[in-house]
Amino acid sequence: MTKKFFALSAAVSATAMLAACGGAQSGSRDQIRAVGSSTVYPFAKAVADSLAKSNSAIKSPIVESTGTGAGMKLFCGGVGVSHPDIENASRRMKKSEYEDCAKNGVDKIAEVQVGLDGVAFAEAKGGLGLKLTPADVYKALAANPYGKPNTAKTWKDVNPAYPAEPILVYGPPSTSGTRDALKELILAKGCDANPEMKALKDSDKEKHDAICGEVRSDGAYVDSGENDNLIVQKLEANPKAVGVFGFSYLEENADKLVGLTMSGVAPTYASISDFSYPGARPLYIYVKVAHLDAIKGLKDFVAEWAKSWGKDGLLAKQGMVVAPADIQAKNAKIASEFTLLDPAELK
Fold first, then answer.
1. Using CA atoms, how far apart are residues 286 and 292, in angstroms rounded to an integer?
2. How confident is the model at residue 4 (pLDDT cuts 50, 70, 90)?
3. Which residues are paired to 321 by β-bridges?
4. Residue among 112, 180, 299, 37 at smallest CA distance from 45
5. Reduced to 3 states, what is the DSSP secondary structure of residue 57?
6. Which one is the CATH code of 2-117+283-345: 3.40.50.720, 3.40.190.10, 3.20.20.190, 3.40.570.10?
7. Top-level class of domain 118-280
8. Phi (first) and psi of residue 47, to 5 degrees
9. Which pLDDT score is estimated for 22?
């Protein structure tokens, strides 16, 4: 009787605290809400459906594809039922995002790495057959390559070995984690192949980041929103175009698309799992610890992720690249104990 009383009191207190933090939109919510990455979205949806099937007492979580950046803003907006419980991310949280979270009372966050993915470049079968390098991608897509306005119109303008076909690349928007990964893993590396740009990184980081990371907006790069399936459709309609999206979408459409090599390495399950592919990256979920006891099923949802990310698990069947065993073990511990993220680790 005493244990039941204290358990009930704790639950009521947690819900009351959450409602109080929720401000004008406070109240109750009987479904988990996750926002964020379009890359992580299909995996999160699969885990949500799996949880609902295995536990009829828990409603299937609401999963929204907002893009990593936009999702971070929603997640960091505050504590309470009007704010999401989980952020799905196709790149790591930034230090500035954590600071925004903390300003709004979201200062207890668990970071769980759920698997791996790659920033894949692809085209329709019978396309241009480009053999890309980070430097060539940078020259093709940067707004101001090496500090000068981009005048390249065709792939041949970028590299004489390429065909004289117009540069047309469909890719993610600025709110996307895939866009951030494109900048960090491909564009910045291509930019820093130039010794002057590499030196600029130390002398004027802000200027370096602008020159190396800003994508052109003159039509050569087309922002295709948070719908990666739309990029696939556009590639099918135009074999001379190139698309940029998460590897899982390439694998899912292997009958229609071909992955382009990057520095001689094709985007494959093996090359991403061993990080030999230059665009390989970790995938994360961020959990609002203050919501754990107040939102029904939230702990179970996180546990379902850990059950699903093994070599023979649900996520591998969905196309996610499985993380190494030591990473799985480390994050399974975080998923069960909800170890808090140390902001000192963030950039």
1. 12
2. very low
3. 116
4. 37
5. coil
6. 3.40.190.10
7. alpha beta
8. -65, -40
9. 43
pLDDT in tens, 150-182: 999 999 999 999 999 999 999 999 999 999 999
| Residue whose token pair is 């680790």 | 345
Range(s) within the chain of domains with CATH label 3.40.190.10:
2-117+283-345, 118-280
Q: Can you read off the two tokens belonging to residue 159?
A: 């590299």
Rounded to two decimals, the pTM is: 0.87
pLDDT range class, residue 27, cuts 50, 70, 90: low
Q: Which residues have CB under 8 Å from 265's CB, separation 6+? A: 271, 276, 277, 278
Q: Average pLDDT in the 290-307 region?
A: 97
| Span 264-285, pLDDT tens digits | 999 999 999 999 999 999 999 9
Q: How far apart are CA 271 and CA 268, in angstroms?
A: 5
Residue 8, pLDDT score: 39
Contacts of residue 185, Cβ cutoff 8 Å, sequence gap at least 6: 119, 278, 279, 280, 281
The b-or-e profile of 120-142 (16+ CB within 10 A means b, else e) is bbbbbeebbebebbbbbbbbbbb
DSSP conformational letter for 142: B
CA separation for the pair 90, 178 (Å, rounded): 6
Biggest distance spanned by C-alpha atoms of the chain: 80
Cβ–Cβ < 8 Å for 290, 18: yes
C-alpha span between 292 and 300 (Å, rounded): 10
Q: How confident is the model at residue 9 (pLDDT cuts 50, 70, 90)?
A: very low
- Counting Cβ atoms within 10 Å, is residue 25 exposed (0-12), middle (13-18) or buried (19+)? exposed
